């Protein structure tokens, strides 16, 4: 049985993610115009710099208010050594290729990546794994910007492409 286009391109994004050397999360993304693959990227350290598997993660802690007006603060830990897959995709593709295109990404973009994608010329983001910490504000941004933002349901990643989330 032939795979549908969403499954095909998400499978490629998951295969691209296997290039990542991040011990916490492997993320892959692909840029598609029509049915033509225009670029791929994954998360990792800048070229020529030791990555997290060699030098360890550079973890920072941040605090942000809990949603729904709560007075509690949520502690977030993130690695700042790694350039996100979406950021790498934008760095290594041309704006003209991105105009009206679709980005398939293994994980829902974080707030920073969503901001960058919203300003990049793309028309749609398709993701598989949710990122609950940023979901509400990212979804609101995509709606405000008029971009299609959808989770790929009923999808199973290719075997041996998923890494357990260590964050």
From TrEMBL:
Entry-linked InterPro entries: APOBEC/CMP_deaminase_Zn-bd (IPR016192), CMP_dCMP_dom (IPR002125), Cytidine_deaminase-like (IPR016193), dCMP_deaminase (IPR016473), dCMP_deaminase-rel (IPR015517), Deoxycytidylate_deaminase_dom (IPR035105)
Matches recorded under CDD domains: deoxycytidylate_deaminase
Cofactor(s) of this protein: Zn(2+)
Residue intervals of the CMP/dCMP-type deaminase domain: 4-149
GO MF annotation, one: zinc ion binding
One GO BP: pyrimidine nucleotide metabolic process
Keywords, in A-Z order: Hydrolase, Metal-binding, Zinc
Binding residues annotated for Zn(2+), in chain numbering: 84, 110, 113
Pfam families: dCMP_cyt_deam_1
GO cellular component, one term: cytoplasm
Active site: 86 (proton donor)
Family stated for the protein in its record: Belongs to the cytidine and deoxycytidylate deaminase family.
Protein name, entry field: dCMP deaminase
Species per Swiss-Prot/TrEMBL record: Cohnella phaseoli
Taxonomic classification: Bacteria, Bacillati, Bacillota, Bacilli, Bacillales
């Amino acid at each position: 049985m032939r795979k549908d286009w969403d499954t095909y391109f998400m499978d490629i994004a998951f295969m691209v993610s296997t290039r990542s050397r991040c011990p916490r999360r492997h993320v892959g993304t692909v840029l598609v115009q029509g049915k033509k693959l225009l670029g791929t990227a994954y998360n990792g350290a800048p070229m020529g710099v030791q990555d997290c598997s060699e030098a360890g993660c550079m973890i920072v802690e941040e605090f942000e208010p809990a949603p729904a007006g709560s007075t509690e603060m949520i502690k977030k830990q993130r690695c700042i050594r790694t350039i996100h897959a979406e950021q790498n995709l934008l760095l290594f593709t041309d704006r003209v290729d991105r105009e009206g295109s679709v980005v398939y990404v293994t994980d829902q973009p974080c707030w920073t990546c969503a901001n960058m994608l919203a300003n990049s010329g793309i028309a749609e983001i398709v993701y598989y794994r949710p990122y609950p910490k940023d979901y509400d504000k990212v979804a609101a941004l995509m709606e405000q910007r008029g971009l299609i933002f959808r989770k790929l349901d009923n999808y199973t990643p290719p075997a041996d492409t998923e890494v357990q989330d260590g964050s």
